[in-house]
Structure formats: structure tokens, C-alpha cells
Specification:
Shape: elongated
Main location: membrane
Order of helices and strands: HHHHHHHHHEEHE
Pfam family, one: Cation_efflux
Strand order of the largest sheet: 1-2-3
Keywords: Membrane, Transmembrane, Transmembrane helix, Transport
CATH superfamily of the largest domain: Cation efflux protein transmembrane domain
Largest sheet: 3 strands, mixed
InterPro entries: Cation_efflux, Cation_efflux_CTD, Cation_efflux_CTD_sf, Cation_efflux_TM, Cation_efflux_TMD_sf, SLC30A9
Structural class: mainly alpha
Radius of gyration: 26 Å
GO molecular function, one term: monoatomic cation transmembrane transporter activity
CATH topology of the largest domain: Alpha-lytic protease prodomain-like
Oligomer: single chain
Distance between the termini: 59 Å
Number of domains: 2
């Protein structure tokens, strides 16, 4: 498999969404120019913003793969989280903001109704393309989430690319349904203001999605622990090593979607010499690296068992 093919396969969700959104955006803008539909123009802006979002996420993934250096000893993996947060802000500021503004303008000064046939054709094509992208995103995320529930898997996911596309495509499909209903209702009730109201509703949908994405991206950017199951397994492995009498704590943080820094505080057997302690640390690190390849950095600190430490003045157990 060539490097290009492997990269496309790795980012199939992003490339699929990008291809769909570029084509959809062009079609929607053409339809909006022909028909004067506010909802269609809003949908075009929505698809254009989504296209830019996919480009930013691909750029973020590229930047995040840079190797560690003196300035960033743990690498650049969390740069992807920064771009994910930027994407959430763009959805809110550009996607939702423009949608609400356009809707308000068309309610205040509605445009005359025109033949809706072009809108229906474009919306049908957009629904097929967006549905294809959504299907890819759902399939890829379902394969990665295992037996977890959808919302729980999203909250625990450390790879924003997958769930951002899933949210975007879901919002896009909902927006298409609203736009189609608005086009029909505008003509059925001979009231072009309905089109503007639909644009505002689409903006509100995007706003909710943006807030949810921003919350998830913020948590990743600040730093989230590894999956509790991984933490428990690391503790179990360390506790099972001869020479370890207790594990005080295992603290982790994701430095990238597939990269974890772990700091372990453990009580070593007092009978161990310094050389034996160093050998034990090397053995633990080798074992952990073998069992958990995602542990990019392992720090093990010998410390007395926490419940055996003397109390500080005024401290109460």
C-alpha cells in the first residue's frame, strides 16, 4: 500500500466529508442564486464552513505528527485538539452566525417566491451525498467505539476528527430536512418569511452542535486522562511486579489521540539495592511498552506507601 493510499484510508472520514461538502456547497450556491432562497443560501454557507473544517482537521493531523523536539519534548499531538477547538468556533461564529443573520434579513425583507424545482433537486442530491458521508462517519466511529454507548464513546474519544464529522454530518442532514420543509411551506402558504425562519432554525441547530463540540475539544485541549480501563490495567501490571509492595497512584494524560504520558508512584521493597531498583524500573517500563504501545512516555517514581507517610501538622486522615 502506498503512503498516499494509506493516508487516505486513515482519514477516510475526513476525505469523504470534504468531497461531499465541496460538491454540495457549489450546488447550493447555484440554486440560491437562481431561486433567491434564504434557507438554500444558508445551507450553502453551512456546507462551505464544513469543507473548511475538514481542511483544518486534516492540517491539524499533519501538524500533530511532527516529532518531539527540545521545545516540545512530548511532541505536537495536542495541536490537533487546538484545531478541533477552532473548528467548533467556526461552526458557531460563521455557520450559526451567518445562518441566523440571513434568516433575520429574509424575515425583515422577504424575497418573492420562485419556482422551487431547482431547490428540490439540489436538496435531494445534497441529501444523498451528505448521507454517504454520514454513513462513512457512523461506520468508522461504530467500529472504534466497541461496546460503549454512542454518547459515552463520544465523551471518552480522544480523536476529535471522527466525532466532529459525525456531529457535522448529523447537523447537515437535519438542516437539509428543515430547508426542504421550509421551501415547501413557503410555497404552500405563500409566505416567503417561512424560508427566513428556517434559516434561523438551521443556525440554532449549528449553534447547539458547536457548543457540544467546543466542550469536548476544550477538555482534550486542557488535557484528559486515559481510558480508566487502561489506568486500571497499568496499575495491575505494576502491582504484580516482584519488588513492588504498593502502587500509590497512576496518573495519565493524552498528548495525542494515540499517545499517553503516564506517571506512576510506587512503593519499592526496602530490601532492594539501588541497582536492583533501577533494573526493576527498566523491566516495568519494558513490560508496559509491550502491553500498551500507546504509552509514549512512562515515568516511575519510587515513593513510600501513601498510607504509611507521616501526617503533616494539622492534617487529619
Amino acid at each position: 500500500m502506498s503512503t498516499l493510499t494509506a493516508r487516505i484510508r486513515e482519514n477516510i472520514v475526513l476525505y469523504g466529508a470534504l468531497a461531499a461538502n465541496v460538491g454540495i456547497a457549489i450546488a447550493k450556491f447555484v440554486a440560491a442564486a437562481i431561486t433567491g432562497s434564504s434557507a438554500m443560501l444558508t445551507e450553502g454557507v453551512h456546507s462551505l464552513v464544513d469543507s473548511g473544517n475538514q481542511i483544518l482537521l486534516l492540517y491539524g493531523q499533519h501538524r500533530a505528527k511532527r516529532p518531539a523536539d527540545a521545545a516540545h519534548p512530548f511532541g505536537y499531538g495536542r495541536e490537533l485538539y487546538f484545531w478541533a477547538f477552532v473548528v467548533a468556533i467556526l461552526i458557531f461564529a460563521v455557520g450559526a452566525g451567518v445562518s441566523v443573520y440571513e434568516g433575520w434579513l429574509h424575515i425583515k425583507d422577504p424575497e418573492p417566491l420562485r419556482d422551487p424545482l431547482v431547490n428540490y433537486i439540489v436538496l435531494g442530491i445534497a441529501f444523498l451525498l451528505e448521507g454517504s458521508s454520514w454513513t462513512i462517519a457512523v461506520r468508522e466511529f461504530a467500529a472504534s467505539k466497541g461496546d460503549e454507548g454512542w454518547w459515552q464513546a463520544i465523551r471518552r474519544s480522544k480523536d476529535p476528527a471522527g466525532f466532529i464529522v459525525l456531529f457535522e454530518d448529523s447537523a447537515a442532514l437535519a438542516g437539509l430536512v428543515v430547508a426542504a420543509a421550509a421551501v415547501w411551506a413557503s410555497h404552500a402558504f405563500n409566505d416567503p418569511r417561512i424560508d427566513g425562519a428556517a434559516s434561523i432554525l438551521i443556525g440554532l441547530i449549528l449553534g447547539v452542535v458547536a457548543i457540544l463540540l467546543a466542550r469536548e475539544a476544550k477538555g482534550l485541549l486542557i488535557g484528559e486522562r486515559a481510558d480508566p480501563r487502561i489506568v486500571a490495567e497499568v496499575r495491575r501490571v505494576v502491582e504484580g511486579q516482584p519488588g513492588i509492595t504498593a502502587v500509590n497512584h497512576v496518573r495519565t494524560i493524552h498528548t495525542a489521540p494515540d499517545s499517553i504520558f503516564v506517571a506512576i508512584s510506587a512503593d519499592f521493597d526496602d530490601a532492594l539495592t539501588m541497582a536492583e531498583g533501577e533494573t526493576l524500573i527498566e523491566r516495568i517500563e519494558a513490560t508496559l511498552h509491550t502491553q500498551f504501545p500507546q504509552l509514549s512516555s512512562i515515568y516511575i517514581r519510587p515513593e513510600k506507601r501513601e498510607d504509611a507517610l507521616p501526617l503533616a501538622p494539622g492534617q487529619v486522615m
